[in-house]
Amino acid sequence: MSRQNDPHPDHVRNFASDERKGRVLGHDSMKERAEIKQRIGYMSQRFSLYPELTVEENLRYSARIYGVDNSKYRLNELICQFSLQDAAKQCVARSRNPAAGCFRFLNCAHASAVVSDEPTNVDPLTRRLFWEQLYKLTEPGMTILVNTHYMDEAERCDQIALMNKGRMVAKGTVDELKQRYAAHAGTARPTLKDIFVHVISHEGDK
């Protein structure tokens, strides 16, 4: 199988170490990487399932890798959840199902937390379906970290961290950030974009 279609790229498999320490899902990020890996899902910007396999085959493959219990039951549950009943037997590359853009969710079936790297570069219908499914995934307690340059999408998240040149320059809920920077962003009702522009333009003042 092509390396470029690997749904678990190196930068997700291997948690890069630095001088700082932390905990992920209760595990030490330096000492318990294997345990963290088993519980982390990754949703990439590009299509990351094996296109030559069917939806079912991709699901079974992931279930075997991660040792998902009751994989047959979970398989049927996921196919129904993402409205893929008609596409389940088709190769991913040939599927014309309107929900096909949501196939990337299938990589996250095993996860307790998901890292989502700019995942919504899709048509408007699929984008709406994508966010509906994201909300469903969080209902049982899954944590989802979304990396995006679209501020309107960031506003959908419960907690926001604004980054500039690899540094976190502000964090909080949308309401908290708007209240904090309303007097400084040049408007009484600042958008998240207004706040971001203000924060990074004043980075040199600190």
From TrEMBL:
Per its record, what are the GO molecular function terms?
ATP binding
Q: Where is this region: Disordered?
A: 1-23
Q: Mind listing the UniProt keywords for this protein, alphabetically? A: ATP-binding, Nucleotide-binding
Give the InterPro entries listed for this entry: P-loop_NTPase
Q: Does the keyword Hydrolase apply?
A: no
Q: Which SUPFAM superfamilies match?
A: P-loop containing nucleoside triphosphate hydrolases
Q: Does the keyword Nucleotide-binding apply?
A: yes
Q: What is this protein called?
A: ABC-2 type transport system ATP-binding protein
Origin organism lineage = Bacteria, Bacillati, Bacillota, Bacilli, Bacillales
